[in-house]
Amino acid sequence: MRLLVKALPLTLAGLLLAYLGHARAQEGTAQSADAAPDDELRITVGSEFRSQFRLAFPATRSALPSSLADAAADIDSTLRQDLLNSRAFAVQGPSALAVIDLTGEQGRDFELYRSLGNEILLQIDIVAEDGKVALEGRVFDLASGDSLLGKRYRGERSAARRMAHTLADEIVLLFTGRRGVAATTLAFYSDRQAPKQIKEIYLMDADGRNQRPITAHQTVSLSPVWSPKGEAVAYTSFFSSRPGIYLVDLISGRKSPIVTGGAFNASPSFSPDGGQIAFARRIPGGNIEIFVTDRRGGSLRQVTHARGIDTNPAWSPTGRQIAFTSNRGGSPQIYVMDAEGTDIRRISRQGRYNDGAAWSPDGERIAYAQRAGRERFDIVVVDVVTGESRQLTQGSRGSYETPTFSPDGLKIAYAGKYGSGLGATQIYVMDDDGANARRLTSEGNNFSPSWSPYVP
Predict the structure, then answer these.
(1) Could you say which of 4, 101, 290, 435 is the most buried, measured as most Cβ atoms within 10 Å of its Cβ?
(2) Which 3-state string (H, E, C) describes 431-442?
């Protein structure tokens, strides 16, 4: 995996400041905290490569009362794991740093951290203020002694993990030029509530924690997809007996029907401006085609007209194209068309069954599931321009479907069954080159992840 960095200093402080100034002008499975650096990861610096940033992260300094003491541990563990999950840092934690005797004098202590190969230092202080938790994080360049970042957050105990996620993303942004994804969210559906026939829509943090339902229809609800601003999730539900498109507002919790008429409506996908939704709909007396409606269910129009089944639309980040699955050529394959339904061309060229297209945030790649055996699928990524494809998973060890890109394009979440027995389906996440897969769910069966956009 490679992370893009616009520039990197001879001393970290000098080059990072140069990068930040340039940027402003232009705008006008899990490791331990003491893990050794991953020599396989390289970060792109212009046209060159470098290893992960070596970061010293000593024990968090906390002055919380007993009533809030667990918040410090939660922040500490969350922040450490977020930095490791970013793959941008080789983190030395308290155990590895225990071999040095700190003096309390900054210059001397920085030299001691550097003696262990570290380039940067992260110091965390947590205190109580008016019954709330205050988190302060500072990042230093160990070579120059300069402070590179200082952030302070304050909130209720319930916001402790959110503050840690936010700080982690700020640190990732500073060193890679890309905002981290620790504070983002995954939507999915699950049958974990009895009876198993019931399936509801859930949310979870990007690290798999804080899993919670957002629907309670007591029926089958599936195929969640995020609105571009992250304030709502559209999904398919059998709430009115036939599958229809619904919307849940995440602030109010209100559920609203979008399209429920007709025999079948499924697989919603938002346009990038959030004003339209593409979905699959059965036409009277015919097959399933791709339709587009506005957010309130009005201005319904049909955009595909084929003898085969057209389903699972996915709107491109530019809004000019829609990817979808169609068997118009005899077997299910991935196609791309202009948003108006013209200029249809086939994207998948290998495999007899391909489904579940998901665009990368830059619109240059599409991930999808490709049948690898009788009941097994693999995740494949294709370059939209060149047509070059790459298989990311190995179907001989399981079956993997419904990929979704993280908003930075560096990770892919998907639903998978591991092992020869193909037991429960769970949500996993991996790097966008297929490396470092790890499981996020464990309760019941869990399907169809959808990664949230960045939320301001």
Answers:
(1) 290
(2) ECCCCCCEECCC
Q: Is 128 part of any domain?
A: yes
State the burial class of residue 173 (Cβ atoms within 10 Å of its Cβ: 0-12, 13-18, 19+).
middle
Residues 373, 424 within the same domain: yes
Contact at 8 Å (CB) between 207 and 227?
A: no
Going along 9-85, which residue ranges are E strands? 42-45, 48-50, 53-56, 61-63
CATH of the domain at 46: 3.40.50.10070
Task: Look up the domain containing 126 and give its range.
Answer: 2-176
| CATH code of the domain covering residue 425 | 2.120.10.30
Does the residue 456 lie in any domain? no
Residues 191 and 119 in one domain: no
Q: CA 53: distance to chain centroid?
A: 22
Mean pLDDT value across residues 432-450: 96
Q: How far is CA 235 from CA 229, 242, 288, 324, in A?
A: 16, 13, 18, 17
Sequence-separated (6 or more) residues with CB below 8 Å from residue 153: 134, 135, 136, 163, 166, 167
pLDDT tens-digit profile of 251-297? 999 999 999 999 999 999 999 999 999 999 999 988 999 999 999 99
The structural domain count of the chain equals 2
pLDDT of 43 > 60? The answer is no
* Token reading at 273: 């401006």
Same domain, 144 and 210: no
Q: What is the pLDDT of residues 173-220, one digit of tens each?
A: 999 999 999 999 999 999 998 787 999 999 999 999 999 999 999 999
Sign of the torsion formed by the C-alpha atoms of 431, 348, 234 and 427: negative
- The pTM for the full model equals 0.89
**Does residue 79 contact residue 168 with C-beta atoms inside 8 Å?**
yes
Q: Which of 143, 176, 209 is the last residue of a domain?
A: 176
